[in-house]
Amino acid sequence: MSKLGPLMIRIRKATRNDAQVTWDIRKYAVLAQCSQVYQAEQIETWTSGQASAKWADIMEGCFYVAVDGHTVVATGMLTIETGSVDAIFVLPSYMGQGIGAQMMQFIERLALESGVRLLTLDATLNAAAFYRRCGWSGDVVSTYHSPRGISMACIPMTKHLVSELSPDGVI
After folding, report:
1. Does the pLDDT of residue 117 top 80, yes or no?
2. Theoretical Cys-Cys bridge with 29: which of 89, 149, 160, 161, CB 3.0 to 4.6 Å?
């Protein structure tokens, strides 16, 4: 339960109007969760600035938001063409309440419905355990090269999706 009572989470497609709030959720989640595993300069570069037109374009394309009442509390991104998952961020005051797991389940269901059977992501070092709890695999540390010009340690992870539509998992 949130501090204000039970959560009433719904997930919807993001719009351009969500650009700044999703940027802020990303920023606050990174500041809250990543400072123990990444250098201050990396975090500063990662979180500086405001939502841009390019960010808003990405929002319209493949972002989803989790909403509690009228408050956007989490984000998730699925690029159907590549099976890539990104931008799973939860507002710090809502962390630990299962919203990230709900977003992952939503994205996996969307991927299955779109014919995607293999998902990939680059997990931050602090988030890898969360993804493993969600059924993802991957242990080897690699380097992620951010569009913002920073390189940082990550763990490439994968998840093979199986359909629940048939007993043997085959569609």
Report:
1. yes
2. 89
Nearest C-alpha neighbor of 135 from the set 97, 162, 99, 165: 162
Please give the pLDDT value at position 6: 65
Say how far apart CA 125 and CA 97 lie, in whole Å: 20
In a domain, 103, yes or no: yes
Q: What is the pLDDT of residues 41-63, one digit of tens each?
A: 889 988 988 898 989 998 889 99
Whether residue 80 is contained in a domain is answered as yes
Q: What phi and psi, each to the nearest 5 degrees, are found at residue 91? A: -55, 130
Residue 104: pLDDT band with limits 50, 70, 90: very high
**What's the number of domains the chain is made of?**
1
- CATH number for the domain harbouring residue 42: 3.40.630.30
